[in-house]
């Protein structure tokens, strides 16, 4: 299972909670230069985010949206700068970061995201040469599932735009082959 973090978006550069945005043109051009170098897949499972489908297409893959690969629903925080939430709702932000079951923004808890992603990952366990293009939260949830980490520990993984993370099914679980590998064009 190869995970590709989708190309950067204006919101990523501005340190905002994810919202459905188009990918940056420059990053899509970089992705196009990587086409054919990340595997032989013809189809990529993608999150519902426009940037994920655009990234898959730039990489030469047919995008197939899958709801389970959606980034967390951040409710009323969607699209807002992290710094603004830290300033206006510090207790709510602290609760969300400390408690995987908390959803003070009215959206989805990190525990719910982790459960959703783990369920999808197990449902495709026996398939080969799969590619998923999505945002960092989903990849972190997959890593957390593979390593038995809770959401707060899985959040410690740094995942750059267009980086890859590979998991392989093994006896009794998943093996982490690599994390945050950055291909060069």
Element string (H = helix, E = strand): EHHEHEHHHEHHEE
> What is the alpha-carbon Rg in Å?
16 Å
Shape: globular
Q: Whole-number average pLDDT?
A: 94
List the total number of helices.
Answer: 8
Q: Which regions contain 5 or more consecutive residues with pLDDT less than 50?
A: none
Describe the largest sheet. 6 strands, mixed
Q: Gap between N and C termini, in Å?
A: 22 Å
Q: Enumerate the strands of the largest sheet in spatial order, edge to edge or round the barrel.
A: 3-2-4-1-5-6
Strand content: 15-25%
Helicity, in percent?
A: 25-40%
Count the beta strands: 6
Structural class by sheet pairing and helices = alpha/beta
Could you name the key traits of this structure?
185 residues, 6-stranded mixed sheet, 8 helices, 37% helix, globular
Structure report:
Strands 3-2-4-1-5-6 form a six-stranded mixed sheet, sandwiched between helices. With about 180 residues, it is of the alpha/beta class. It has eight helices and six strands, in the order E-H-H-E-H-E-H-H-H-E-H-H-E-E.
TL;DR?
The chain is of the alpha/beta class and 185 residues long. Helices cover 37% and strands 18% of the residues. The protein contains 8 helices and 6 strands, in the order E-H-H-E-H-E-H-H-H-E-H-H-E-E.
């Amino acid at each position: 299972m190869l995970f590709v973090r989708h190309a950067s978006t204006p919101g990523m550069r501005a340190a905002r909670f994810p919202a459905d945005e188009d990918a940056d043109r420059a990053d899509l051009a970089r992705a196009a230069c990587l086409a054919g170098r990340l595997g032989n897949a013809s189809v990529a499972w993608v999150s519902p985010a426009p940037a994920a489908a655009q990234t898959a297409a730039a990489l030469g893959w047919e995008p197939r949206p899958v709801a389970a690969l959606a980034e967390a629903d951040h409710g009323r925080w969607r699209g807002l700068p992290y710094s603004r939430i830290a300033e206006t709702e510090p207790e709510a932000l602290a609760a969300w970061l400390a408690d995987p079951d908390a959803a003070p923004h009215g959206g989805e808890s990190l525990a719910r995201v982790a459960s959703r992603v783990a369920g999808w990952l197990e449902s495709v366990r026996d398939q080969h040469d799969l590619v998923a293009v999505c945002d960092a939260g989903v990849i972190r949830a997959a890593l957390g599932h593979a390593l038995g980490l809770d959401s707060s520990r899985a959040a410690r993984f740094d995942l750059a735009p267009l980086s890859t993370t590979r998991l392989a099914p093994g006896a009794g679980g998943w093996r982490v082959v690599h994390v945050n590998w950055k291909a060069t064009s």
